[in-house]
Amino acid sequence: MTPMEPENEKIEYAALHTQVLRYPRQHLATFGVTNIYYYLVTRPLYSEIAPTAEETVIREGRVIAERPRIVTPYYLTRLDGFSPDARRYFETLLRTRGPDEPALFYSYRNEPKGLSIVAENWMTVVDRLSADIDRKGDPLVSIIKGEDAFWDVSLLKFIYEITARSVPSNVAQLGARGWLGMSHGGVPVGARVMIEEMFEQLARGEISAADLEQELNRWGIFEEYQDRFFAVIRGRRHT
Known about the structure:
By secondary structure, the chain is an alpha+beta fold.
């Protein structure tokens, strides 16, 4: 076995020692955007050299989970912005599972809101935050206990865990609508539904023509829709 690099060891340590102390009380939405507010509490880095210091770092922010997208291994190989390792993984899926097996793809963005350091131990901070959340009754607030040097790793582990908890519900709801079935051209029914929504959004000026063109090209079906695509663009120019 190849020895693990020191940085990788630290990342693994951070992931193993991350605890989601309070999960959102709702799963990620199947048909819309989910906005989760988080508190990520850590002991400050300098606590290692001053272990008696009772201080806690509190990072706050929002994780915005976009609506889950129905994809296939073929679709994933055509996405931009992924590393060579990720692309090799997508190509493995293509070979082992075939080009057209539907799956869900989740995308997120993190919006940090602030950082504060308080003169309390982390357990006291967590109790206070939990009481405040209970008082407000917000079902989409979470508390995470992480590692200060790799707090972003802790946040990623949180994202992974809330996704894993939501997948069964999302799949069941999409399946109940028949969206996980395949239509012609090796495109899932749900993807066709989303393309129809994108045509409506383009007509209203809510997305750009480039957004829709890119989505059609990812599925390899631009020619199928091109007459309608250009008709919508012409219609917008005359409004």
